[in-house]
Amino acid sequence: MKKEGVLLFVFLLILFSLIVVSAQNSTDEKAYTCLKGKVKDKCSSLTVEEQAFSLLALADNSAIQSECESALKSKSSNNECWPSTCNIKFTSLALLSLNNIGENTDKIETWLLSKTKIPSELEWYLEIEASQATSCTISYDSSKSTIKIGEDKKISSNAGTCLIRAYDNYWLKIDSSCLNKNFTVSCDKDFISTLLYKKTSGSTWYVSSDVKSASAGGTTENAVNSLCFGLNACDYEGSLWASLALQKAGNDINKFLPYLIALSDDNEKYFSSSFLYYLTNSDEYLQEILTSQKTDGYWDLSGSRYYDTALALLALSESQAESNAKSWLGTSQGNDGCWNSGNIRDTAFLLWAAYPKQPILAVNNTGTANCESYNHYCTTNSECLDAGGNKLDNFLCASPKICCDKPSTETCLEKGGQICPAGQICSISTIITSDAQNCCLGNCQQETTECEDANLICRASCLSTEEEASYNCNSGDVCCQTKPSHGGIPWYVWLLIILVILVVLAIIFRNRLKVLLFKLRGGFKKGPVTTTRPPFLPPSGVPVGLRRPTMMPRPLPARPASRLMQKPTSKTDKELEETLKKLKEMSK
Predict the structure, then answer these.
(1) Domain limits for position 142
(2) Are 112 and 239 part of one and the same domain?
(3) Are the CB atoms for 536 and 548 separated by under 8 Å?
(4) What's the number of domains the chain is made of?
(5) For residue 535, is it within any domain?
(6) Residue 526, pLDDT score
(7) Is 481 left (phi over 0), alpha (psi -120 to 50) or beta?
(8) How much is the pTM?
(9) What is the DSSP letter of 215?
C-alpha cells in the first residue's frame, strides 16, 4: 500500500499543478512584451529591416525609439539611403519608420525620387476619337503632323517618327524613344484623347484615367507619366515599398502606378494587390486580397505567411477578414509571445500592421491632436487626393493612415456598398464615403458581441449564481459568467486539493486505518480476544450462497529470543501489534 499511495499522491500533485489558473495576457500585449525583450539594448545588432520595423512597432516607447533611431541612422549613407551601399526597399522602410515619428525625411525622399526611370516593360499608345470624321494636328517638340480620322475611327497616317499607326490603324503607338515627350492634339471636330498602355509581352490593356476632351479647334495635352524605381533596371518590390513610403510622406505617386499595375500579375509573390489596394483604394485589389486569404485566416503568397499576413493587414481595416487573421495570430503565437519562432522582423511588422500604437513624435513635429476628434478623416493618401483634400500634418492618425480634411467624394451607393443596420456588421471591409463613415463593401451580417464570442451570456443583470465578466455586450446588457466556487477557485481544484490531502493522510496513518477498517467490518470489539471468527463474507462478485469454510487461526511459530528486537513499547503500540498479529493469522 505504501508504494501505491506514493504513486497516487505524485500523480494527483502533477495534475493539480497543470490546472492552476492564471491570468492570460492578450495577443498583442504578449507580442509587444516579447519584441521589447528582443530589441531593447540590442537594436544596433539588428538588420536594417529589423530596425525599421521595430522602430515602427515600438515608436510609443521613448527609450527604444531613441535607441533604434540612432542604430538605424548609423547604417545609412549620409542619412539619405540604406544601408551604406543603398537599396530601394531598405531606404523606403527607413523613410516609413522615420516619417512615422515625425523626423524630417526630405533627404530620403529626394534620394528615392532621384532613382526613378522610365520602365522598358510597357508599351504606350495615343488614342484620338471623335463622333464624326475629323482632321487633327499633333505637335511635339518642334514638329507638327496632320492626320485624318475616318468615320470608321481609323487613322490615315503616322504622325512623325514618334507616333506610328498600330492595331489595325485605330491607335498611334508611341515610340520608346519618345516616352518623355508632350503631345498636343487639336481637331476640327469635338474630340477626346487619352493614353493606353500594356505590358510589352502581355495582352491586357489599361486605359489611363486621365481622359482629355476639347471642342472643335481646341487642344489637349497628353504625356506619358510612367516611372519606376531602380538603381540599374526597374526594381518591382523596391517600387512597391518606395511608392507606399512616399505616399505616406505626402507625395503624389500616380506616375508609378502604371508600372506597378501592369506588372502586378508577374509579381504576386510580393503581394502586389495589398500594396495596390493601399495606394489606389480600388475594390478590384480588395477582392484579390480577400480571395487569397486562407481558410485559417492567414495569407501566404511569398512562402512567409507571417510577413504576407502583415502586408494584408496593412491595407485592411475593420473587416471580417481582419478579424479572422487576428484570430489566427492568437492561435499561432509562440509561448514567448512572438511569431515565427521569435522572428523580430515578422513580429514587429505584424504589430505595426495589426495592432499599431500612437508614436511619440519628434520635437520638430508639432502634430499632437487626434485627427477624428477635430472632425477630420483618417484615410489613405489616395482617398484624400481623390476627394480633393489636403493632408493635415498637425493631426494624428494611427499609421499608416493620414489625416485628411475631406472624406471620399463618392457616396456609399456609388461605391457599390451599403450601410449596415444596427446589430449587424460588414462581412469584409468598411470604407469612409461622403455620406457614411462605415460603408460596407460586402454583406451585412448579424453582429456577435465580444461576450458571446467568449461563450458567455449577455443579460440585463446577472443571476445570483453568476458574476459580471469584462467582455462587452450590446444595448447596455452585461456579460455574465458562472461564479467560481470557494472564493474564485474552481470546484474541481478544491476537489483535487481534498483528494491530495486524503492520500497524504492515508499514507501517514495507514496502520491505524487498517485497524479502523477492521473494526467497521465487525472484526473485533473491545474485550477478550476469542479464538474463532465470524464466517468469511464473500468478496464483491462471488455468488451469494458460496462460502469459504471457517478456519481456525494457526499459532505463530516461536522465534529465537536472540532475534527479538528489544525496545520499549507503549500501551498503544502493544495493542496495535497484537491486533496486526491476529489479522495476519486470520488472513492465512
Answers:
(1) 120-225
(2) yes
(3) yes
(4) 5
(5) no
(6) 41
(7) beta
(8) 0.63
(9) -
Q: Are strands 369-370 and 395-396 parallel, antiparallel or unpaired?
A: parallel
Q: Write out 202-247 in H/E/C secondary structure.
A: CCCEEECCCCEEECCCCEEEEECCCCEECCCCCCHHHHHHHHHHHH
Pair 142, 127: CB distance under 8 Å: no
Q: pLDDT tens digits, residue range 527-579? A: 443 333 334 344 444 344 333 333 334 343 333 333 333 444 455 555 556 65
d(CA 37, CA 447): 37
Say which residues have a Cβ less than 8 Å from residue 447's Cβ, sequence separation at least 6: 423, 424, 425, 474
Q: Which residues have C-beta within 8 Å of that of residue 200, sequence separation ≥ 6?
A: 120, 121, 122, 123
* Separation between Cα atoms, residue 392 and residue 403, nearest integer Å: 5
**How many angstroms separate the CA atoms of 396 and 378, rounded?**
8
* 110 and 128 assigned to the same domain: no
| Distance in angstroms (rounded) separating the CA atoms of residues 68 and 59 | 9
Same domain flag for 64 and 163: no
3-state secondary structure (DSSP) of residue 229: strand
Given a cut of 90, is residue 223 above it in pLDDT?
yes
339 & 246 share domain: yes
**Rounded Cα gap, residues 247 and 249, in angstroms:** 5
Tens digits of residue pLDDT in 336-348: 999 999 999 999 9
